[in-house]
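=== RUN LOG ===
request id: a7f3
mode: sequence -> structure
chains: 1
length: 394
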Amino acid sequence: MKEIELKYGCNPNQKPSRIFVEKGSLPVEVLSGRPGYINFLDALNAWQLVRELREATGLPAAASFKHVSPAGAAVGLPLSDTLKKIYFVDDIAGLDSSPMACAYARARGADRMSSYGDFIALSDTCDLPTALIIKREVSDGVIAPDFTPEALEILREKRKGTYNVIRIDPTYKPEPIERKQVFGITFEQGRNEIRLDDPQLFENIPTQNKTFTEDARRDLMIALITLKYTQSNSVCYAKDGQAIGIGAGQQSRIHCTRLAGQKADTWWLRQHPKVMALPFIEGIRRADRDNTIDIYIGDECDDVLAEGAWQQFFQTKPEPLTREEKRTWIAENRGVSLSSDAFFPFGDNIERAHKSGVEFIAQAGGSVRDDHVIMTCDKYGIAMAFTGVRLFHH
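=== RESULT ===
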């Protein structure tokens, strides 16, 4: 097949719409549903991300994409009991024996608010445990190199048969030159084929602390690969084999760092004993539960704790998570890695990153204020590598 006609483009008024190839055939096959223009943008960007993570780490990888940027990305490391609970997958049969399911649970669980209605990419065959997670989440579709018969049956039943399931040829390699049109004008460039699993990326270390643990190198690599497919400017915090906070598409880098840091803090706060013990009412919808947790953790907690409000969500009124409790808990998060898609222009980015437990940084370097950035890292004992690589993506 050389062409797939789409319902419409980015918006319903943008017709006609299609995806097509000029030579050869499309590397994708729609097994269920009718994917749209944005669905395919998410699917193809997400597929590149997980394919690259798989090649770089040797582990199954998953991504949760929304509006052409990842809400989460991860590799298939085992999940602790705490992560199983906060990702709401502790009841999934066969989870521990499925690295693919663990990868998606991590990718989806990092930022559940942003992942609502995501498009999923899986580096390996979608198995039954992974399909069981996808089955109950609000999602637009999934792309993978293959599906087991049991998984495909479950996914084809989702959303009354309209759920988008796409199989992609894992051997497909695009042309080295890519093109797109803006306002009737064609842009052309070489594809960004840079490898981010090269150990030399971490050899230029200008900070006093020059020690990167193996876990830190893995997490920095995961963050860099995630940023390669994230709308710029972008910053990614990572820990334990997954992105825990992604700041995308901000005009100012410090706003990226703050946004991603806030998401990383929320990920960590969800593991606070008070949050894990919230007494939700029976039958609360998953989206309402996730939104309630987000509000409870944030500065507007009265919206769910005020008299007349808490009864909608909880069996009994929870104690608030105080500002001091949050500050103390966040201070316990250590060993976080941070990557940026370009240089940090000022040390304020490092100051903000330190507040979220960052101990390892990989960034391009090359700012006229590199000396100030290095000095701020040294102030906190942070190890930072200048990769010399910019990863803008638009």
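=== NOTES ===
The first helix runs from residue 37 to 57.
The longest strand covers residues 69-75.
=== END ===
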